[in-house]
Design goal:
430 residues, alpha/beta, TIM Barrel, eight-stranded parallel barrel, two-stranded antiparallel ribbon, globular
């Protein structure tokens, strides 16, 4: 029985109870969200009991970290180091996007080591398998694609990104649009190339029922990929992007009818003034399905600091109703991230998520900030360090410049405003 089927039949699973406790919500709230599709709990049937993370309306904003090798850098040890960095920094989920080396071994090692849900993009491996069998990627068959997806689900993957919305009609929109950066999604480009070469409709769209049956069997969550997401500000909120979203809205409804958990992926590069409209549009067109956004990046020129641009966009997106933020690292657009990049990306995105949770009145979010403020007023440095979103980093900075008076810091020293005002207020009240 899937989580959705359990909710619809009135059965409360251990995962529902765990999510309710973590989110400080009644378990009935979680059950109702699963029933109507506004909440998902990505956990493969083969991995139940290991973790439970809720994503969706009324819950805290979640953060995903992308890992994965490439043809230039392929190290199993390196990916496990990045996995540890992501989890230690507070990532709620990770995705293995490996395209180099022994990708099966990397995926299995990540699955074994992870304490959070794991996602993948199976079309990457389907293309690599074709290449390894001395065939061009475009010659992989529909069965090749679906067999790879099932292999991922069978191994225990909790959610898969599938680019079902890249249809021939949507590609016609793209050809007529005059887009500046065309397609920047790897999965989207694979599907476009395959469709062009084979003169066929996207098999993930055409055989969507096959995908639903497979997903239901493993209770895997479908993450409907945004193959036409804008890769620059000039392409944001254009007709190809919206045309794909229309298709995804239809596929959300079909997934729910089949008892399959589903969420929708979103942009991309979006200017500040268009972010809220993008969130409202997705929620309306996809009937409140959880929205998983990459960034969004609010400028195209922040190379080396794209984690900052992504955090700015992520805070606005989540405050407007996005449920799930995919991190961006400082190395985005430049190279494969290392463990340090992963940590920085996760923490920056967690700052964005928490800022949005205050706006969304997520239970406990504002109270966390109040506790920090009380500790600052009391000059309780140990409490302040414990309450910091990244306590390790906060402690490192504090210890790097010890003050003469341990009650103060080297920013203000004896001129600390908190200490001075506290002294005056104490005199007036005595």
């Amino acid at each position: 029985m899937t989580q959705v089927e359990a909710a619809r039949s009135g059965k409360i699973t251990d995962e529902m109870r765990t999510v309710a406790a973590r989110e400080k919500r009644p378990v009935e709230f979680i059950v109702e969200g699963l029933k109507n599709g506004t909440i998902v709990i990505p956990v493969n049937v083969g991995r139940r009991g290991r973790y439970a993370v809720g994503i969706g309306a009324g819950l805290s904003t979640k953060v995903n970290a992308n890992l994965g090798s490439s043809s230039d850098e392929a190290s199993l040890e390196g990916e496990l180091e990045k996995l540890k960095a992501a989890i230690d920094a507070g990532a709620d989920t990770v995705m293995d996007l490996s395209t180099g080396g022994d990708i099966t071994a990397i995926r299995e090692a990540i699955l074994e080591a992870s304490t959070v849900p794991i996602g993948t993009v199976p079309i990457y491996e389907a293309a690599i398998r074709a290449r390894m069998s001395q065939r061009p990627m475009v010659e992989m068959t529909e069965d090749d694609i679906f067999e790879t997806i099932e292999d991922h689900l069978k191994s225990g993957i909790d959610f898969v990104t599938v680019h079902c919305g890249v249809t021939r009609a949507v590609i016609d929109r793209l050809r007529k649009s005059g887009r500046l950066t065309d397609i920047v999604s790897r999965g989207g480009s694979f599907m476009l190339e395959w469709m062009h070469y084979n003169d066929r409709e996207n098999p993930l769209y055409e055989s969507y029922d096959r995908l639903l049956e497979m997903s239901r069997r493993y209770d895997a969550t479908l993450s409907l990929g945004d193959g036409l997401r804008p890769g620059c500000l000039a392409d944001a909120t254009d007709l190809p992007q919206v045309a794909e979203l229309v298709v995804l809205g239809e596929l959300v409804a079909r997934a729910r009818d089949a008892g399959v958990q589903v969420m929708v992926e979103g942009p991309g590069h979006v200017p500040l003034n268009e972010i809220e409209a993008n969130i409202v549009m997705e929620k309306k067109m996809c009937d409140g399905a959880p929205f998983y956004v990459l960034g969004p990046l609010v400028t195209d020129i922040s190379a080396g600091y794209d984690h900052v641009a992504g955090a700015i966009g992520g805070a606005i997106a989540a405050a407007a109703g996005a449920d799930f933020l995919c991190y961006v690292t400082p190395s985005e657009h430049l190279r494969l991230p290392d463990a340090k990049d992963v940590r920085e990306g996760v923490v920056a995105t967690r700052v964005a998520a928490h800022a949005a949770d205050i706006v969304k009145k997520v239970p406990g979010a504002y109270e966390w900030d109040v506790a920090m403020s009380k500790a600052r007023k009391a000059l309780d440095w140990e409490k302040m360090l414990q309450l910091a979103l990244d306590p390790r980093r906060a402690r490192q900075i504090r210890d790097s410049s010890p003050p003469q008076d341990s009650n103060l810091c080297t920013m203000c020293g004896e001129f600390c405003a908190m200490k001075k005002v506290k002294g005056v207020m104490s005199e007036e009240s005595s």
